[in-house]
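Subject: DUF3106 domain-containing protein

B.,
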Amino acid sequence: MRKTERVLLGCLLWLSLAVAAAPPPGLPGLPPAAPPAPRADPAAGWSALAPAQQRDLRARYAAWRALPESERQRIRQAAARVAALSAAERDALRARFAGQDQLHRDGWRLGPQLGALYPKLQPLLGYVPAEQREPLLTLLRQLDPEQLAQLTLIAQRTPPQDRAELRAQLLGVSAAGRSAWLREKVGH
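Prediction pasted inline below.
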């Protein structure tokens, strides 16, 4: 299996956990391991969930809706490939994904591209003030693979006390000057 496919499968597995519990309309995912019991009232199923489960499902769905359509399309394509696997293979992938650290599983909420890099970007993204979150995610989704690779190096090298300043600088750089700023920060 190619790295790209593993990345997509990781993101798909994250999404499938939400879908297996209570799938919102149109959200792709894997079928649950055991078919759910038919429900007369879908709202009754939702209300039976613990508040923490409801919050988690809302957050997952919001993350899905925030993904660019191109990322959602990649996930849908991966879903089709995963659906073609045997139940044992799907269960093995779910178990492998569940075995990851929660921090990394949550990183997949950013989609296939950023989710694959999340462990390296986490120092920069871990504690982002609410007002910087959306602008930063928008900026990250605009970066090409080389720029993202440079940013992962910068994030890893930046001490914790300097990360807020780094984010502010990154957000303040124009799109035209971003490549030069990244090269300068990497030291090339």
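The chain has two domains: 1-102, 127-188.

T.
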